[in-house]
Amino acid sequence: MLLPRFLTAVVGLPLVILSIWWGQIPFFVLFSGISLLALYEYLSLAQEASWPVAKLQGMILGAVLALSIFLFGTKMGFADSERSELFFTALSLTLILLALVLLALFSAEKDEAFQRIGNTFLGIFYVVWTLSHLFLIRDLRPDGKGLTFFLFLVIWALDIGAYAGGKKFGRNKLAESVSPKKTWEGVVFGTFAALITALIAKAAFLPLMSNARAAGFGLLIAALAQFSDLSESLFKRNTGVKDSGNLLPGHGGLLDRFDSFILSAPAFYYLLVFTAKP
After folding, report:
1. Using 50, 70 and 90 to split pLDDT, how confident is the model at 1?
2. pLDDT tens-digit profile of 170-213?
3. Whose CB has fewer CB within 10 Å in the chain, the N or C terminal residue?
4. To the nearest whole number, what is the mean pLDDT of the chain?
5. For 67-77, what is each residue's pLDDT tens digit?
6. DSSP assignment string, the chain
7. Alpha carbons 224 and 262: distance in angstroms, whole number
8. What are phi and psi of 173, to 5 degrees?
9. In whole angstroms, what is the distance from residue 41 CA to residue 56 CA?
């Protein structure tokens, strides 16, 4: 099991690091691909569990949403009503819902039509909307690159610390009904690793960030990343599977690998924006 994990990391880590470094189109291509493949896994698992979904349409509409967020962000135009492009992502969400409703109305399969709409829309929103906030973090000025590395390093440290601490010292189950292997000891070790990594990352390439701010961000990311992981575990338990896929040997699917970003990436982005100095 360790060899496939190692080989996957050897190939995958340089791609992620280089895309973060370059930003713009390379970053968008890699992470829109990741989010869409993760959405494919989500819809496939839902389908295998006999949940009604519009799989092909969901993939197309997910791609539309990813592109709209990359190009226009999530702004809804409240600050400047004269700039129509600021409404584009809100329009995209509306069109996605409209398309799903019209497909249901004109489809020959009327049974479970609204379940199909709901399951597909949730998949698009849960996977693509959330992960697309990585585009927005990378695009922040002047420290988007550093902040993106900060987020990834903190989550990687959290995962490694939680795995090592849980494997060595794990005794008390965190949420056995959702994820039987996770322990409170793993949470403690992972959170500590995330906190230390946040402070090191701040010192290394975010000199203008205060230690208190770095520690706060690190703790927030650690908490929400673990909730994100548990939310995906709950989804897999509901669909009756262990891994979301087998695309990454030793790691499961892309949804498994990037589940920690589902709640943490949007929260990190909005906190950065709302607490930015004028």
Report:
1. very low
2. 889 998 888 888 999 999 999 999 999 999 999 999 999 999 99
3. C
4. 89
5. 999 998 887 65
6. -HHHHHHHHHHHHHHHHHHHHH-HHHHHHHHHHHHHHHHHHHHHHHHHTT----HHHHHHHHHHHHHHHHHHTT--SSS-TT-GGGGHHHHHHHHHHHHHHHHHHHSS--TTHHHHHHHHHHHIIIIIIHHTHHHHHHT-TTTHHHHHHHHHHHHHHHHHHHHHHHHHH--SEEETTTEEEEEHHHHHHHHHHHHHHHHHHHHHH-TTS-HHHHHHHHHHHHHHHHHHHHHHHHHHHHHT-S-S-SSBTTTB-HHHHHTTHHHHHHHHHHHHHHT---
7. 9
8. -70, 140
9. 12
Q: Fill in the amino acid letter for 192.
A: F
Going from N- to C-terminal start, the domains of the chain cover 2-274
Q: For residues 129-147, give the mean pLDDT.
A: 95
- pLDDT grade, residue 99 (50/70/90)? very high
Query: What residue type is assigned to position 2 of the chain?
Result: L
Mean predicted confidence (pLDDT) in 252-277: 91
Q: Which residues pair with 175 in a beta bridge?
A: 179
Burial (Cβ within 10 Å: 0-12, 13-18, ≥19) of residue 276: exposed
Cis peptide bond prior to 142, omega within 30° of 0: yes
AA letter at 21: W
Locate 163 and state its tokens. Answer: 């795995």
Range of weakest confidence among 244-248, 262-266, 271-275? 244-248
pLDDT at 154 over 60: yes
**Tally of CB atoms within 10 A around 59:** 18
Indicate yes or no: pTM above 0.70: yes
Per the structure block, which two tokens stand in for 59?
A: 């993939």
